[in-house]
Amino acid sequence: MTLVEPVRGDSEVDFGRRVRILRFADDRINGRIGVRPVLVCAILVLLSLVVSVFALGTGDVSIPPAEVLRAVFSDAPRFTEVVVMEWRFPRVVLALLLGGALGVSGAIFQSLTRNPLGSPDIIGFDTGAYTGALIVILTVSGGYYQTGAGALIGGICTAAVVYLLAFKRGVQGFRLIIVGIAVSAVLASINTWLIIKADLADAMAAAVWAAGSLNGSSWAQVGPVVVVLMVIAPILTVVAGRLPMLELGDDAAKALGIRAEPTRLILIVLGVALTAMVTASAGPISFISLAAPQLVRRLTKTAGVALIPSAVMGAFLLVLSDWAAQRLFAPTQLPVGVVTVSIGGAYFVWLLAREGRKQ
User: How far is CA 225 from CA 68, 194, 262, 331, in A?
Assistant: First the structure.
């Protein structure tokens, strides 16, 4: 493996930007990776692990970091193992997995729309997933798996409606965002009406769940999330390489041998499935999918939106937000969605102002 810094006349260029790359080749591997994205991902992974250790050790029962590591990797007193591995570890694992899923979903839609506002929570797919889950909760008092199925169906139906309404000789990013915002507003009204008409106990449970919370997470919730990610990951690995080609436009993608609309549809379904999975597991968690791809793009200084760095950033943001939700007003625990909305709202205002100055 060698480190290469391109020079004028014989350079590797990322959409016009010079990049320092890692080039590796042997009989089985041949490729290149930007050094800066690798370093950013490594730092984010390290920070996520540090936050995870503190999250596992803080609470009503405080455990030093050394004891937390002993409980995770070796033998520790039985009480410490119960607190760390059974009470707290599922929540941390779920935060990392769901944050990564939100980061990837946001990266997919921002790449497809070629717009930093093109995330599932802005377009309305998580609102549709919430509608599906809400119908199951209020009408049949469904359990975890029924609610998950409802969220998935609601998200996919919403994506289908948005896709069909935005389709006009193909789907353009700006049209998809505008239609998605309109559909999201309608669904938000439907969700409010459903809660108003529901019994008080069901309405309160639905309202708490709607805030997006990891409180009470257990290994029973982690298992289905892992299964869904194991199904989605191989498919996404196959089609993810076509995203940069779609960013060049449909004509350029077709010239490169990519069937633009079928590929775009597959990516939309995968992104919606990730969003629906998060909604089913923890309720709608806003702004992670909006902020993660853009933050990591600025850190890596790449022209396009990358999936793996977005996943790492999403995992870090959600595990950090969840830890803050637990500790800011301890012993009262906030839903993590309250923290992400507060942080994301400020970021959203900054992003809108920044985009407005470009006009």
Answer: 24, 27, 26, 28
Find the helix or strand (DSSP H, E) in which 56 lies: helix 35-57
Separation between Cα atoms, residue 104 and residue 280, nearest integer Å: 17
Please state, for a pLDDT cut of 90, what percent of the chain lies above it.
18
DSSP 8-class letter at 241: G
DSSP-derived letter for residue 331 is T
Give the integer Cα–Cα distance in Å for 10 and 200. Answer: 68
**Dihedral sign computed on CA atoms, order 8, 241, 304, 93:** negative
Question: H or E stretch including 18?
Answer: strand 17-18
Sign of the four-CA dihedral 50, 231, 37, 173: negative
Phi first, then psi: give them for residue 221, nearest 5 degrees: -85, -30
pLDDT score recorded for residue 95: 94
Side chain identity, residue 97: L
**42 pLDDT tier (thresholds 50, 70, 90):** very high
What the block records as the tokens of 304 is 């396009």
115-136 b/e with 16+ CB inside 10 Å = b? Answer: bbbbbbbbbbbbbbbbbbbbbb
The Cα-based distances of 170 to 49, 260, 261, 262, 264 in angstroms read 42, 9, 7, 10, 10
Q: Return the structure tokens found at 295.
A: 């933050």
The per-residue pLDDT for range 20-32, each reduced to its tens digit, is 545 544 444 444 5
Note whether 355 and 88 are within 8 A (CB): no
The span from the CA of 120 to the CA of 261, in Å, is 19
Name the range with the highest mean pLDDT among 19-33, 44-58, 59-73, 122-136.
Answer: 44-58
pLDDT score for 104: 94
Q: Looking at residue 8, what DSSP letter applies? A: T
Q: What six digits make up the tokens of 247?
A: 């960013």
The Cα 271–Cα 310 span in angstroms is 13
What is the rounded distance in angstroms from the CA atom of residue 214 to the CA atom of residue 282?
6
| Residues 348, 117: Cα–Cα separation, whole Å | 9
CB-CB contact of 40 with 299 (8 Å):
yes
